[in-house]
Amino acid sequence: MRLSALLIGAAYTHTHGEKVDGQDGAHYQQINFGADYLLSKRTDLYLVTVLQKAGGVNSTEHAAVAAINGATPSSTDKQIVAALGIRQRF
């Protein structure tokens, strides 16, 4: 039985924090996309992309910045992280 050689996934997340001194709390919108292409039984190519947009005020009463887990926080309200690679399983 042969499985499909291409796997694709996507997700959207919206997080909204509590108000800070009457101002809208920090809120984040994030889109995740991933694709995996099987070259053989043990080898595949992969692509993972994450886009995030922040808004509102964080708990320190500063403008919220995008901060994707595993990456250095952005200095702005937007951030994009991507990873492309080849994997060999043993």
From TrEMBL:
<dbReference type="GO" id="GO:0015288">
    <property type="term" value="F:porin activity"/>
</dbReference>
<dbReference type="InterPro" id="IPR023614">
    <property type="entry name" value="Porin_dom_sf"/>
</dbReference>
<dbReference type="InterPro" id="IPR033900">
    <property type="entry name" value="Gram_neg_porin_domain"/>
</dbReference>
<protein>
    <submittedName>
        <fullName>Outer membrane protein (Porin)</fullName>
    </submittedName>
</protein>
<dbReference type="GO" id="GO:0016020">
    <property type="term" value="C:membrane"/>
</dbReference>
